[in-house]
Amino acid sequence: MLMIAFPAAAFATNCYVVAQGPGQECLVVDPGIGVVETLRDVFTEHRLRPAAVLLTHGHLDHVYSVTPVCRSTAPAVLPAYIHADDRYRLADPISLLGPGLVGMFEQQFGAKASWTEPDDIVTVTDGAQVSIAGVELSCWHAPGHTEGSMMFGIDAVPDGVPADLDRTMVTGDVVFAGSIGRTDLSGGSDTAMRESLRNVVLPLADSTLLLPGHGPATTMKRERATNPYLQGLGA
C-alpha cells in the first residue's frame, strides 16, 4: 500500500495520500492549509489520480483545501466524505473560529481567509464500509474533539513498515503520539472523548499503525503502554 504524508503550511496538520500503488487512483485525507501545490507534485511523481477526499473532522486546519482539491479534476468533481455530525462545519468553518484565530491566519498568509463549500459532500456514519480507489475503509465515529470526529481503518499498512504491524488507522485529532485532541473547542467534549478513547481506541489491536492528524506516526502498542490519556481507561 502506498501511503504518503506531509504537513500542511499551518498548524502542522498531516495530509495523507493513500493508494494501492503508483499509477493508481488515490484518496486524499485532510487537505489542510497550503497543500494544493504539494499534492499536485505527489500526484505527478507517483502518477496518481485523485478519486475522493476523506475528512476526519471539520476543523479549518484539516479542511481548508478540500474544495480546490475536489475541483482539481474538473469538469468532474471529487466527493468529500465527512461524518454526518460534522457536515454543518463545511458550510463555513471560518465562521466557527474565534476572531483571534482568524486574525492569526490572515496575518500569517497576508490575505483574508475565504471559503467555498465543496460541491459533492457524502456523509458517513459509524460502522460504514466504504470502497474507494480500490481501498477498503471502515469508518469509526470517535467524538470528543468534535461531534463528528472520525477514524478511518484500512486492513493494510504502508510499504516498508515493520512486519508486526498489519493494519492502519487514520486517527485525525482523536489520538496522537503521547497525547489526544483538544476538547475545549466548539463541539468538543471531555466526556465524549473519554468514551471514544475507552470504547473505540483502546480495543484496537497492538498491531495497528496509527496515523494522527498532527505529529509523528505511532502504534497502538506504544500508545497503550505510554500515552497518559489512555491509562486507567480500561478498568
Automatic annotation (TrEMBL):
CDD domains: metallo-hydrolase-like_MBL-fold (cd06262). It comes from the Bacteria. The keyword Thylakoid does not apply. Residues 12-214 form the Metallo-beta-lactamase domain. The keyword Zinc applies. Residues 213-235 are annotated as: Disordered. Keywords: Hydrolase, Metal-binding, Zinc. Its cofactor is Zn(2+). SMART domains: Lactamase_B (SM00849). PANTHER family: HYDROXYACYLGLUTATHIONE HYDROLASE GLOC. This is MBL fold metallo-hydrolase.
